Fold:
Amino acid sequence: MSDEVDEEAPIFAIAVAAELAGMHPQTLRQYDRLGLVVPARTQGGSRRYSLRHVKQLREVSALSADGMSLPAISRIIELENTVRALRGQVRDLELRLRDEVDSRSRVFAAGASGSVVTLRQGTRVRRATEVVVWRPPSD
Structure:
Protein backbone atom coordinates (compact mmCIF):
# COMPACT_ATOMS: atom_id res chain seq x y z
CA MET A 1 0.00 0.00 0.00
CA SER A 2 1.27 3.47 -0.90
CA ASP A 3 1.94 6.08 1.78
CA GLU A 4 1.05 8.88 -0.64
CA VAL A 5 -2.07 10.91 0.11
CA ASP A 6 -4.48 11.36 -2.77
CA GLU A 7 -5.11 15.11 -2.82
CA GLU A 8 -7.99 14.62 -5.25
CA ALA A 9 -10.00 12.20 -3.08
CA PRO A 10 -13.28 13.85 -2.04
CA ILE A 11 -13.35 12.91 1.63
CA PHE A 12 -14.35 15.96 3.67
CA ALA A 13 -17.91 17.03 4.39
CA ILE A 14 -18.58 20.74 4.12
CA ALA A 15 -18.29 21.37 7.88
CA VAL A 16 -14.88 19.71 8.07
CA ALA A 17 -13.60 21.43 4.92
CA ALA A 18 -14.82 24.79 6.24
CA GLU A 19 -13.01 24.23 9.53
CA LEU A 20 -9.79 23.16 7.78
CA ALA A 21 -9.96 26.23 5.53
CA GLY A 22 -10.86 28.57 8.39
CA MET A 23 -14.15 29.60 6.80
CA HIS A 24 -17.86 29.40 7.47
CA PRO A 25 -19.70 26.58 5.64
CA GLN A 26 -21.96 29.19 4.00
CA THR A 27 -18.87 30.73 2.37
CA LEU A 28 -18.04 27.35 0.83
CA ARG A 29 -21.58 27.07 -0.51
CA GLN A 30 -21.27 30.54 -2.04
CA TYR A 31 -17.92 29.66 -3.65
CA ASP A 32 -19.50 26.51 -5.05
CA ARG A 33 -22.40 28.51 -6.56
CA LEU A 34 -19.92 30.98 -8.09
CA GLY A 35 -17.82 28.13 -9.51
CA LEU A 36 -14.73 29.16 -7.53
CA VAL A 37 -14.19 25.89 -5.66
CA VAL A 38 -16.54 23.18 -6.88
CA PRO A 39 -16.54 20.04 -4.73
CA ALA A 40 -17.55 16.55 -5.76
CA ARG A 41 -21.03 15.37 -4.83
CA THR A 42 -22.22 12.17 -3.22
CA GLN A 43 -25.16 10.25 -4.70
CA GLY A 44 -27.36 12.06 -2.19
CA GLY A 45 -26.07 15.46 -3.35
CA SER A 46 -23.85 16.27 -0.36
CA ARG A 47 -20.67 18.20 -1.07
CA ARG A 48 -17.37 16.37 -0.58
CA TYR A 49 -14.12 18.31 -0.55
CA SER A 50 -10.61 17.03 -1.22
CA LEU A 51 -7.31 18.25 0.21
CA ARG A 52 -6.78 20.16 -3.04
CA HIS A 53 -10.13 21.91 -2.52
CA VAL A 54 -9.11 22.89 1.02
CA LYS A 55 -5.85 24.34 -0.35
CA GLN A 56 -7.85 26.27 -2.96
CA LEU A 57 -10.19 27.59 -0.28
CA ARG A 58 -7.23 28.83 1.74
CA GLU A 59 -5.78 30.45 -1.38
CA VAL A 60 -9.12 32.14 -2.16
CA SER A 61 -9.24 33.45 1.39
CA ALA A 62 -5.68 34.83 1.23
CA LEU A 63 -6.21 36.46 -2.19
CA SER A 64 -9.52 37.92 -1.11
CA ALA A 65 -7.91 39.32 2.05
CA ASP A 66 -5.30 40.96 -0.18
CA GLY A 67 -8.11 42.78 -2.00
CA MET A 68 -8.40 40.64 -5.13
CA SER A 69 -11.87 40.36 -6.65
CA LEU A 70 -13.69 37.03 -6.83
CA PRO A 71 -13.71 37.05 -10.69
CA ALA A 72 -9.94 37.55 -10.66
CA ILE A 73 -9.52 34.76 -8.12
CA SER A 74 -11.75 32.54 -10.25
CA ARG A 75 -9.48 33.17 -13.25
CA ILE A 76 -6.38 32.30 -11.21
CA ILE A 77 -7.94 29.03 -10.03
CA GLU A 78 -9.00 28.22 -13.61
CA LEU A 79 -5.43 28.78 -14.82
CA GLU A 80 -3.99 26.70 -11.97
CA ASN A 81 -6.37 23.85 -12.86
CA THR A 82 -5.24 24.08 -16.49
CA VAL A 83 -1.59 23.99 -15.46
CA ARG A 84 -2.23 20.95 -13.22
CA ALA A 85 -3.99 19.13 -16.08
CA LEU A 86 -1.16 19.97 -18.50
CA ARG A 87 1.46 18.77 -16.01
CA GLY A 88 -0.43 15.49 -15.75
CA GLN A 89 -0.44 15.16 -19.53
CA VAL A 90 3.30 15.89 -19.68
CA ARG A 91 3.94 13.31 -16.96
CA ASP A 92 1.89 10.72 -18.90
CA LEU A 93 3.68 11.53 -22.15
CA GLU A 94 7.08 11.28 -20.46
CA LEU A 95 6.16 7.84 -19.12
CA ARG A 96 4.97 6.72 -22.56
CA LEU A 97 8.15 8.05 -24.15
CA ARG A 98 10.33 6.30 -21.57
CA ASP A 99 8.46 3.03 -22.18
CA GLU A 100 8.85 3.45 -25.94
CA VAL A 101 12.56 4.18 -25.67
CA ASP A 102 13.04 1.19 -23.35
CA SER A 103 11.20 -1.10 -25.76
CA ARG A 104 13.33 0.08 -28.66
CA SER A 105 16.69 -0.43 -27.02
CA ARG A 106 19.23 -0.88 -29.78
CA VAL A 107 22.72 -2.24 -30.06
CA PHE A 108 25.15 -0.97 -32.68
CA ALA A 109 27.81 -3.16 -34.24
CA ALA A 110 30.44 -2.86 -36.94
CA GLY A 111 29.59 -4.90 -40.01
CA ALA A 112 32.09 -6.95 -41.99
CA SER A 113 32.65 -4.02 -44.38
CA GLY A 114 33.11 -1.55 -41.48
CA SER A 115 29.60 -0.15 -41.75
CA VAL A 116 27.47 0.47 -38.66
CA VAL A 117 24.79 -2.14 -38.18
CA THR A 118 21.82 -1.74 -35.82
CA LEU A 119 20.82 -4.89 -33.99
CA ARG A 120 17.69 -5.49 -31.97
CA GLN A 121 18.17 -6.22 -28.31
CA GLY A 122 18.66 -9.94 -27.77
CA THR A 123 20.08 -10.50 -31.27
CA ARG A 124 23.29 -12.50 -31.23
CA VAL A 125 26.28 -11.10 -33.04
CA ARG A 126 28.13 -13.36 -35.45
CA ARG A 127 31.62 -13.26 -34.00
CA ALA A 128 33.46 -13.81 -37.26
CA THR A 129 31.96 -10.79 -39.00
CA GLU A 130 30.60 -8.25 -36.47
CA VAL A 131 31.77 -6.71 -33.21
CA VAL A 132 29.59 -4.68 -30.81
CA VAL A 133 31.18 -1.25 -30.43
CA TRP A 134 28.52 0.82 -28.62
CA ARG A 135 25.41 0.23 -26.59
CA PRO A 136 23.25 3.15 -25.33
CA PRO A 137 23.41 3.44 -21.55
CA SER A 138 20.34 2.17 -19.73
CA ASP A 139 18.70 4.56 -17.27
